[in-house]
Design goal:
Layout lengths: L2 H11 L4 H10 L6 H7 L13 H16 L8 H24 L19 H4 L16
Helix pairs in contact: 2-4
């Protein structure tokens, strides 16, 4: 089991999104973009796959300690932080399911043209630039 597998399992177990991982890494002054984090979670055979180094995993774990426990000056209860995160995930799932339930318009009704509208000159001035050519290459 390599660092990428450990990082993936922590991400799933704690229900973290990429932007939350970026915030956790910034708690320990470690800058990493969402794209780089996405590359860590790709399959090994993907061309953009990136190995998770020891430094990345170490900084993530140190940031998780600060994220869950807080600092000495401002301590937190880890279970409350996890419950808040689970509530946010549940809310996102509810929003997505509502968006999927909305009926999408299948077809658009054509607009009815009235007699008082302007005539369409574009259709009348259609000029054929190339004449039709029939190729005889032995096929019927």
């Amino acid at each position: 089991m390599n660092n990428n597998d450990i990082f993936k399992k922590l991400r799933v177990a704690l229900q973290l999104r990429d932007d939350q991982i970026v915030e956790i890494l910034e708690l320990v002054d470690f800058r990493m973009s969402k794209g780089e984090i996405g590359n860590l979670f790709r399959n090994e055979d993907h061309p953009n796959f990136m190995d998770c180094g020891d430094q990345v995993l170490r900084n993530f774990l140190n940031g998780m300690v600060i994220h869950l426990r807080g600092t000495k000056e401002n301590p937190k209860n880890a279970m409350e932080v996890i419950k808040q995160n689970q509530a946010a995930v549940a809310q996102n799932i509810a929003i997505k399911s509502k968006a999927e339930l909305k009926p999408k318009p299948t077809t658009k009704e054509p607009k009815k043209q009235s007699n008082t509208s302007k005539p369409n000159h574009k259709k009348q001035s259609k000029i054929q630039v190339v004449e039709k050519v029939r190729f005889k290459n032995g096929k019927k």
